[in-house]
Write a structure and sequence with these properties.
- By secondary structure, this protein is α/β, with parallel strands linked by helices.
- The protein has two domains: 114 residues, Transcription Elongation Factor S-II, Chain A (Up-down Bundle), CATH 1.20.930; 330 residues, Rossmann fold (3-Layer(aba) Sandwich), CATH 3.40.50.10880.
- It is built from 19 helices and seven strands.
- Strands 1-7-6-5-2-3-4 form a seven-stranded mixed β-sheet.
- It is globular, with a radius of gyration of 22 Å.
- It starts with 17 loop residues before the first helix and ends with a strand.
């Protein structure tokens, strides 16, 4: 806490903030979903000892839900041998052991998922079990139309680039402009891929998810990017390519959601490598199940495995017995093309998966230089570090009640100017905290239907609006 900014954080007791809505409405639904998932799995277990242990974990989840709904104090985490437990418990004490409904939103939400993890990590038979795994893959399966659309588009672009057709008859300036536009398109796909955050969109239908992900939806959403620094990011990558052509040029992606969003992150990674805008991509997943849909190393493997035989994956009946139409030969080829390319990049060491325990600690990224100096120094080696999603954004700026006109470079503190790290944050807004807006923008958005008026910043809760914010810590 000593390294955090002094600007106060959002609290779960603030009735005008999404922190309160989260604690009241979202978290009980998330814990209930975890209980239901484990019930289903326990019902299929034949080993008596494992089944009994699974039922004990269900009881622990139910106890935590009861404590949350009855506003009990947060209790110290049981020590599961991981290095972060002491830090969680020390901070809990420093914060005066708050109650669920009067706690800093960022700390208490991280605590919720870390406490759930202890139930499994301290077990004999359930270590590594992901209560959200089933949900993640079923949501990816329901993203079929968008996956097929993007796979076809990407394959077409890759084949054009290989044959040199995309540069035929064009001046160097026109080629550069076309590349800038393509980079922008890839980034926007990556930005709006975050629309399928499972921790928020718990009640969406299959059809709703499809509407969120298509190209028409992305084009319509372009006007909703309130801050757009994509061009600045392209400039630094293009400059690095020109000046360090023979050197390693690394881009890091601090991942957010699995499933469709991970799929679009890999589309962007493949594009950066193919276009020569990077020579290596380092992906940073979480080391444990986190915020429902965040990527773990297993999710990366599961996604690739689903693409080995897309026909089987996308036509298999779902839990209700509903069947799905066959993919065409071309659709199968498009998906397999991606699988082949990504697998080769991974095997060649150009696409690296590198988890770190820091990403599931309870604090903001202002702490990184002090509590994870080796990670901070590693990120300084990168040409660009892309932070995906709402939680990474909240952690970059400490989920604090900044004035929305505060410059992004100020709000990210030690990750900002002179840090040696170039930060690019892709964020669809799903929480109150926001910075870098032009004067008057927040007030204007509050006046829109459902915007919250003078009572709340409700416009920032829905994921309808986005920011793409850049800070050049190498300048």
């Amino acid at each position: 806490m000593e390294f955090d900014p002094k600007t106060p954080q959002f609290l779960t007791s603030d009735r005008s903030s999404f922190a309160s809505v989260s604690a009241d409405d979202r978290w009980p639904v998330i814990i209930t979903g975890a209980i239901d998932d484990l019930h289903r799995t326990v019902a299929t277990v034949t080993d008596d000892e494992k089944a009994k242990e699974g039922k004990r974990i269900i009881e622990k989840l139910a106890t935590m839900k009861y404590e949350l709904q009855h506003d009990r104090q947060l209790t110290p985490l049981d020590d599961d041998g991981a290095s972060d437990i002491a830090s969680y418990n020390k901070e809990l004490e420093q914060r005066g052991t708050p109650k669920w409904h009067n706690a800093p939103w960022l700390y208490s939400e991280c605590y919720l998922y870390r406490r759930m993890e202890t139930f499994f990590s301290l077990s004999k038979h359930w270590k590594g079990y992901d209560v959200f795994g089933r949900q993640k893959m079923s949501t990816f399966k329901s993203s079929r139309p968008a996956v097929l659309e993007l796979a076809a588009r990407y394959r077409e672009l890759a084949l054009e680039a290989e044959s040199g057709k995309n540069a035929e008859g064009k001046s160097a300036e026109e080629v550069a402009q076309a590349e800038r536009l393509l980079f922008s398109e890839m980034c926007e796909i990556c930005l709006w891929g975050n629309a399928t955050d499972l921790s928020l969109l718990t009640s969406l239908t299959y059809e709703d998810i499809q509407k969120l992900q298509g190209s028409q939806a992305r084009q319509a959403s372009q006007k909703n990017i309130l801050v757009n620094d994509i061009d600045s990011a392209f400039d630094v990558l293009q400059k690095a390519r020109a000046e360090k052509k023979a050197d390693e040029r690394r881009v890091d992606i601090v991942l957010d959601n699995s499933g469709f969003e991970l799929f679009v992150d890999l589309i962007l990674a493949g594009y950066l490598l193919s276009a020569g805008l990077a020579t290596t991509i380092v992906l940073h997943p979480k080391r444990l199940p986190w915020f429902v849909s965040d990527v773990t190393p297993k999710d990366f493997a599961d996604l690739l495995n689903s693409m080995v035989d897309p026909q089987a994956f996308y036509t298999a009946a779902d839990d209700s017995g509903k069947t799905f139409p066959q993919l065409s030969d071309k659709e199968v080829e498009d998906v397999k093309f991606l699988f082949q390319q990504w697998s080769e990049f991974h095997q060649d060491g150009k696409l690296i998966v590198r988890p770190h325990s820091f990403w599931t600690t309870q604090g903001c990224y202002w702490r990184m230089p002090h509590v994870a100096p080796e990670l901070f120094e590693d990120l300084q080696e990168s040409e660009l570090v892309l932070f995906k999603g709402d939680l990474n954004y909240r952690k970059l700026i400490n989920d604090a009640q900044w004035d929305p006109t505060t410059p992004f470079t100020t709000a990210i503190g030690p990750m900002g100017p002179k840090s040696g790290i170039r930060v690019l944050a892709f964020r669809t807004c799903k929480a109150d905290t926001v910075v870098g807006l032009p004067a008057g923008e927040d007030e204007k958005l509050r006046q829109l239907p459902g915007g919250g008026g003078s009572e709340a910043r409700k416009w920032a809760w829905s994921g309808k609006w986005a920011v793409v914010s850049f800070s050049d810590g190498k300048a």
